[in-house]
Amino acid sequence: MHVSNDDAALVLVPHGENPDTSLNKVVIPHIEKGGPLPPLPCVVAHSGTHEHGQTFLKNNFHYKCNNGTAEVIACVSEDMSVIQINRTFLRNGIRHKCLISGETVTYEQRSTCFENGIHYDIGDSFRNGSFKIICKENGPVIEGCYIQNRESDIVLLGESLIIGKQKHSCEVMPYGKIRYTINALGCRKGEEIYSEGQIWTDKHIRYQCVESGVTRVLGCIDEGGLFIELGRDLLLQGIVHRCYKVNNTTFYHRFQCEERSLHDCLINAPTPRRVRNVHNLAIAPVEIYFVSKYISSEDVRHYLTWLIFMLPITTVTSATGMFFPRSSFFFNILGVCYLMIALTIIIRLMENLFGSRRAIEKLEPEKFSQLYVLVNITQTIFTVQKAISDLLLKYQILAIGEILTAEARSLFIASFVYCIQAFILSVITLFILNPNKNALFDRFGNRIPRFRSNNDMQLLDLVSR
Question: Mean pLDDT over all residues of the chain?
Fold first, then answer.
């Protein structure tokens, strides 16, 4: 504020304006020379006149008139929040600052990034997991990926870096996702690591390491060095050499076939022995054949068919979940649902055969008790298996692995063990449903049919026992 003295009168004008030409001025007349001055008002451009001690707002500052001088006492944000001098205020992700430097007061407001309970200013960078994030005007942006076991070294977004025998990549995935990966330079086979382009042989199968650590099968080779391309068959000196792939497994098959063409040899080719998860599916048709041929009651056949397919279907759901880990939980639910149906079926069969559990002892020849226990054991091991594998993983008795999550790994182990247990139970089922030793098969041998012709599921000789 500028003060002018003319003929014992004071002329107050805004700071920087000419007292003669200023339109915003206050004239205080009759001031005695050497006399005391009264408290002066403040004349502020574009704000008017304010009395001594009065406070007022202009732009983003809160002023107080102090004997003709407008002093800044605080800063004010757009939402009328007050920020004291040399203080910082955070609100809705905006950092407000009211700073004083010499005789100048500056008000600043900047956007911030809020991550993990901390506010970061524009331009600040910070770490979140494996990613380096920089705070920008439009929010946090991933700048790159931190290299594993290093504090400051990063791989820029969309780039790769080779360190030793590993390739570190910071990849941009679909839908804006970022992924940090580590791939070995070469291919791992067991405990061995092969470099890119290297060729090796393992158990008659010849492999080659191609780019990105992918192992490609070239073909098969015998002890004498004879090479057979993958997917090719060769007849040489009465011996057929076959190299083919089934699903993800490559087979080398060799057998004798003399005085025949290659085509005839392949038609009559013996099937190589393989470990399969379809034993239960092979047992089920045998049991279905016995039930359909040697049981006269249609209802009994219907209920037993449901029970016979209990083990094959739950085995299929478990094996399918092993091949598709992301859907393993869904297939596990399907298996549990079928087991609940099987439990209902065994109860319905019990009610229709002899009315209640009081007659179970009288039907020992029908081996219903063993069948009832089999259904309950199957349901128990199918549902409890997952909890057991969870405990084994929790106490690190079994390793979680690098590919599957803990949940998927647990279901994989539970499904694998159940497939083995289901095969054992299927063999036991063959003994329970043996027509030679089970009286339910009333048409077997010279037995007299025991069920009524109207298939009402009541045993004729139950009363006579």
Answer: 77
